[in-house]
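Supplementary Methods S3. Input chains for the assembly prediction are listed below.
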Amino acid sequence: MSSVIDLLKSHRSIRKFSDQAIEPELLEELFAAGQAAATSSFLQGTTIIRVTNPEKREKIAELAGNQPYVAKAAEFMIFCADLKRAGNYCEAYEMPFEGDFTEHFIIATVDVALMAQSLVTAAESVGLGICYIGGIRNNPGPVSDLLELPRGVYPVFGLCLGYPDQDPEIKPRLPMSVIVKKEVYNEEGDQETIEQYDERIRDYYRTRTGGGHGISWTEQVATLLSEKSRPHMKGFLEEKGFKFK
Amino acid sequence: MSSVIDLLKSHRSIRKFSDQAIEPELLEELFAAGQAAATSSFLQGTTIIRVTNPEKREKIAELAGNQPYVAKAAEFMIFCADLKRAGNYCEAYEMPFEGDFTEHFIIATVDVALMAQSLVTAAESVGLGICYIGGIRNNPGPVSDLLELPRGVYPVFGLCLGYPDQDPEIKPRLPMSVIVKKEVYNEEGDQETIEQYDERIRDYYRTRTGGGHGISWTEQVATLLSEKSRPHMKGFLEEKGFKFK
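Predicted structure tokens for the full assembly:
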């Protein structure tokens, strides 16, 4: 259909990078490609903090749950949802500030993800590999302190970028019939489809780990939702001014 | 640098579409491209509801704040954050369900946005135009009822897709120095840069509306944050099982 569609379909996360640096001109192009993504209500609610200091990178790698590629990738940056930049102008124009509603949180978080994903596609189009680092939300307070993030700004995820030094398989996704519905939400037939998919995922993990018992998709996601995942997030966000009103 | 980067940089929202339909095979490819995007903890927390029924499209166009292209675009779909699909397996495996933390909300919402943005890039690569419809959050309850969304699923945004019947200008983005920071969050120099940018945006609107007083970026975003934006969202989400614990 298009080479871009082939590119998008070939995505896999890269966790091992060569030493090759990313040219500053290319990096600028990646940022520009990301910035061109849609932004809700024209908010432009993303701030990217590019982290180059090696000690800081090591520290964040540790805070993100010991992910060494955070320190080793050619580039590492943290994508922040930013309501401060716009909020500054409420004060300047003597308007009341009401930007702490759940809706504002959604707008800013979605803005960040759209921009990041366009930047990622741009990167992959020139042969770079990427890995999103949600693990920075393990320790959002210390990470924010390292980046000197003010009130109104929170770190959504990190992103590693670099030239790949590995060639992992593409991880199979849920069959489309489970993901795309017509007219209404409807789970008919999904259970059987997901059972078959679970087998594929078990095989995928068995192949990758060279044997042993593969874990299924349903086991993984049921575990995710059976855990009080990062229970500090709400308190952290409230402190940063995201009040979920 | 790459034709993909040029493609990404050429994005603008399309709000007027030709009557040309999107071939089913192409539509499937777009979904597949979207699905290949990264997904946090392998959750795959997106469900897309494709709406084809004309009366339903009209109704949603109205609920989204009278956006006629919702009814008129070749395709319209609603991207939902879905914790139900995974949550079903907590029950199946007799695990406790704890998937109502703020963190789970973030994971699912980011998943949706990443998938949508890859789908959008795929669409734009074959000459389609798109428009995100955050306006469905004006009336998330009635929209959810129309789509029969169960607990654990919420509509994040809609997406119009079709062949463009207009050729709008690219809307200038904030200068990169305001968006991308090195090592720490730092607003040095931003105020002056934003002042100049405000002038560009005023010009952009003056040109588009054929004269008259253009509104600046800072005026727009200060207004957004001075309003209790969609104050129903929190209550709606809680009812749908997103508890922000």
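The domain at 3-169+230-239 of chain B is CATH 3.40.109.10 (NADH Oxidase). Residues 45 and 85 of chain B are 8 Å apart (CA to CA).
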